[in-house]
Predict the structure.
Amino acid sequence: MTGRFNLHKKLLSIFLNLQAQLYKRFSQLHAVELLEGPHVLVFAPHPDDDVLGCGGAIKRHRLMGHTVKVVFLTDGALGISGLSARETTIKRKMEAQHALTFLGVPAEDVYFMDQPDGALVPNAPLIEAIQRLVTKFKPQLIYLPSFLDKHADHRATNEVLKNIELNKVLISAYEVWTPLIPNRLVDITAVVKDKIRAIEAHESQLANIDYKTAILSLNQYRGLMYSKKQIQYAEAFICMPSADYFKLMASVST
Ligand SMILES: [Zn+2]
């Protein structure tokens, strides 16, 4: 019992520490109208995290005329039972490309880094490839899964990005497996139909888990629980300058 109690105490202190830092040093929860751009970079550990975590925001960026590049870090090879790793990767890449057409992202803005699914680590060739992309593209805003996510590949995505030289970039961390303590909401009500089509394009993944209901419910919760304005569907983020984001990540790491 003592062990479990201590774990709870530790988790609570991490949670409160994060919340205090977020709200004292950065903004309270607020819905943004104008999204930063025009160069936006999205990191997804697996094909579908982009759509689930920030699919609505991606569409809104595209409608604002921003260029959105999406980088898939792993090959997603563990994602379909009964298919070989190679067949799974091919199918999931096709689903990822198809899904992004509903969000207005053309194929030339989609990158596959083909790292092993379930074993993502910040290795030198991967860091170099991402650094080249960042240096050339010069994004103003980067989306990635949050460092609080329960999936190891999602946390490893943060470790990869920690090694990249970022110049005046804003980080927006999205939620997939673990809900966030957010400080930013993006109203996606006007584009939720496109997000639904994009989720449905990940047909192989929906066979295992009803992501569509889960994520839309989360987006609905975020929208309806926002007290300052009526919103039907919203995506929630931890958003701050990259240097502050990685400091915050270090401060809550155990
Ligand atoms: Zn994932």
Summary: The pocket of zinc ion is lined by residues 45-46, 49, 151, 153-154, 176 (CB under 6 Å). Residues 28-253 form a domain with the Rossmann fold fold (CATH 3.40.50.10320).
